[in-house]
Amino acid sequence: MNQKYMLPLIGVFLLFLLAYAGVEGANMQWAFGIIFPYLAVILFIGGFIYRVYGWASSAVPFRIPTTCGQQKSLPWIKQNCIDNPDTASGVFVRMVLEIFLFRSLFRNTKAGFARDETNRLSFSWEIFLWVGALAFHYSFLVVLLRHLRFFLTPVPACVRFLEYLDGIIQIGLPGIFLSGIVLIAAVLFLLARRIFDGKVSYISLASDYFPLFLIIGIAATGISMRYFTKVDIVSVKEFIMSLVTFHPSIPEGVGGLFYAHLFMVSVLFAYLPISKLMHIGGIFLSPTRNMANNTRAKRHINPWNYNVKTHTYEEYENHFRDKMIEAGLPVDKKE
Amino acid sequence: MADELKPDELLDKIDHTPARGSWMDTSVQIRPGMYCYAAKAESVETLGLPNARAWNPLEDDWKLPENWQEILHNGLKERLEKFRTFKIFMDICVRCGACADKCHFFLGTGDPKNMPVLRAELLRSVYRNDFTHAGKILQSISGASKIAGNRPLTLDVLKEWWYYFFQCTECRRCSVFCPYGIDTAEITIIGRELLNLLGLNIDWIATPVSNCYQTGNHLGIQPHAFKDMLDFFTEDIEEITGVNVEPQFNKKGADILFITPSGDVFADPGTYTCQGYLILFKYLKDKYDLDVTWSTYASEGGNFGFFTSHETMKRLNAKMFAEAKRLGVKWILGGECGHMWRVIHQYMDTMNGPADFLEEPVNPITGTKFENAKSTKMVHICEFTADLIKHGKLELDKSRNSNISLTYHDSCNTARGMGLLEEPRYIMNNVCDNFFEMPENTIKEQTFCCGSGAGLNAGENIELRMAGGLPRANAVKYVHEKFGVTHLCCICAIDRAVFPTLMEYWVPEVDVIGIHELVGNALILPGEQKRTTDLRMEPLPGMEEEEMEDEDE
After folding, report:
1. Which residue from B minimizes the CA distance to A198?
2. Which residue is closest to B316 within chain A, CA to CA?
3. Does A44 share its domain with A179?
4. Of A60, A121, A328, the CB nearest to B471
5. Model pLDDT for residues A298-334, shown as the tens digit of each residue
6. Which residue range(s) make up the domain with A55?
7. A38 lies in some domain
8. A154 and A237 share a domain?
9. Considering its fold, how many domains does chain A have in total?
10. pLDDT tens for residues B487-500?
11. For the domain that residue A274 is a member of, what is the CATH number?
12. Degrees to nearest 5, angle at CA A33 with A30 and A36
């Protein structure tokens, strides 16, 4: 058994059990329903700000974007304004495409190595990671936005419209939300990649598996409450509203499954700032993407630039003067 | 040359599927053929860099200062504050694996620690252990650290850093594919900077750096010898064209200072590119009275300081502006080189500017303002020549290159650290009729490294170089077989130095050529005699018989 994924799996299962048993067996609704969620939100907001502030307080000494297209040079050569931007607007478009469409990942290729007389290396377009990542992030976003219905009274029209779209395929009652299915499928794909792709498996750490299992746990408990155990939605909404308005009160008739769901969400929020999940914030600050490639046109200032010892022309000439004169090279001082 | 390892044997060794288990369980094996010799003490001393001494990577004792862990810890801490890139790249990698098979060293060696993500993890594992709250908590739980991918900085870890940070050519190909733009070059640059705090450079970098600092160029060519080399080319060119193209040196008040890598002055086939420059400047002098000077003081375009530390890079680069100021030129023109242009384009003005003593560069012949270089005031010779050709200012005879079938290698640095893609292609298409691109995923921003960049073009690490150059050579082989390509064209002095060996190993039928060699062949000098040979003294197309007669006489 591979510890790298068995331990996170067991960990997530224990988290689930802890909340479920804590509520069903020890009546600790106040802990899993009130204390942990509040604590998680504090840790999330505080931690997120702390991390972003930490990055922002590091200097950006050089303007070193990775250029992925033709530079701006001669007027008759067509510049690639997005992949090699020289203006703020170009950078903006590049960042929007990067953040919302994962443009760099879209380029992904897969190397093949023909083990025959040609020994040819070939590189084919590899779209699956991009599709999986995009499906995962967007379905997660839709699920999150749908949950706003529990936090807002009245439920805003845009949330209801999103729900309508998400449930547009009507099978049985309650209607199926596509986002939940896509989310589970995408996470399972990403997990399978980590376990079965030799290269990805080799580089993966326990901290890569943990969030995946946690999200699977969250999605699975959410789906079971909606479709199978049919949690009392009205009580849940009242409870969430009591948290939002800082008058927390434990509802009647909501079982351990709900608290397990809520607890795992709390863990995810608290965990986010201390983990790689901070890529959510980091992508905005990545200097190879968010800077214009105009370093020769517009001087970039390094806040810690300092003077260095150089070997001056004078020292050079002093060293080589005789040889230079002999070779007929001009010198500043004749002797 | 890698006599021990034939191409087939090298290919047989490649396995892109790593073994199961954890990469931390395998400790580093420093293997001959894959590493470069240690920096000589005297070269490290020239610049007053720390811990100059004789040492050998194969020996157990690396003669480190007693408090080496403390030095590295503090060095790491300082750089996390000084470089946002470094801090963010330490924090946000999700290990998606998109970069894994993008590295030429991974593709050529199959060593999983050459996957860019793992190269970074070598450092990240120590960062997580020593600089994150989670890492510090996990240290107290036995076994937890390792499962979380954290580890303390031990001597083994240090050796692993050294081995793998000198198996990265800082080509940035992985960075193109990373969804967060994580740039392994940046991590390697800082990794090497940390190693240099302990005097752990390789000699192929340290000695050129020392030469460049003292003598003005990597090869340590002294001023009179530098002049001799160019005089020698002048004689050759006169024999071929009948025109004396004698260059000017250290001339005060010239219009333009020209700086190119010293490799072009010293080593074939770069020397022919250098002759191309001489012919171009003579042409511009005679036709348009453009006054170009060379410098013996700033006689190096390349900057191996870039492969040592940011500070060393700055110390070497300072000569360019200093010499331009001393000579009172209007602006600077830079020759064909890869990392030289990364430094000029993305670092020079910030480090050693502002160049307020120079003028915003304008091509006096065409009137073109080089808007993209108006602050640094240094123009790439491909931008310059492309502009001249576009305006019909050069009289070219393409047929002199008609026996050549070209493909073009985009240098990593000009492609991914600048975006100089179309200018060289425009020139090539104007001086040669037969141009064929290599496959799409191996050119432009996806270009493959020569496998010997970033100071790794030594002799002792030849297996590494041949393995790292495999993806590039493989694409050349493809166009050679499909289109009959005879020449691999490039705009980088390191490329010109290393491709002949790489081609000989993988695609022996293909020769290496620089763009301005092609220009030099095609350009019709005022008053030139009928040329019968190209710059390599090989008969021009259609002149084979005349050449034979000449030889008979």
Report:
1. B17
2. A310
3. yes
4. A121
5. 999 999 999 999 999 999 999 999 999 999 999 999 8
6. 3-63+128-304
7. yes
8. yes
9. 2
10. 999 999 999 999 99
11. 1.20.950.20
12. 95
